[in-house]
Amino acid sequence: METVVNNDELITKIDRALDSMRPYLAADGGNVKVLEVTEDRTVRLELMGSCGSCPMSAMTFKGGLEEAILRAVPEISKVEAVNITPAY
Question: What is the pLDDT along the chain (88 residues), one digit of tens a residue?
Fold first, then answer.
């Protein structure tokens, strides 16, 4: 039996998971914002401040933000960032 959780509850859980990462992002002049949770339980994030243009943003996203969300909020199936800067 699956527990029904609304988007507001999911966003609260996601924000709590991201709060553990925000001090590290802020130390480099950045932050992260939850844009939406889709019907298929995909979280869409926006990297803000210097994180939006940093060449390391893909590593920060995969190794930090995505991992924190998937570990803390098992209802989420996928995490995407809308503005990751590709590393060259």
Answer: 344 457 888 999 999 999 999 999 999 899 999 999 998 999 999 999 888 888 888 888 888 999 999 999 999 999 999 888 666 5
Residues 6+ away with beta carbon under 8 Å from 86: 58
CA 68 to chain centre: 8
Beta strands of the chain (E only): which ranges? 30-37, 42-49, 78-81
Dihedrals φ, ψ of 20, to 5°?
Answer: -70, -20
pTM of the model: 0.85
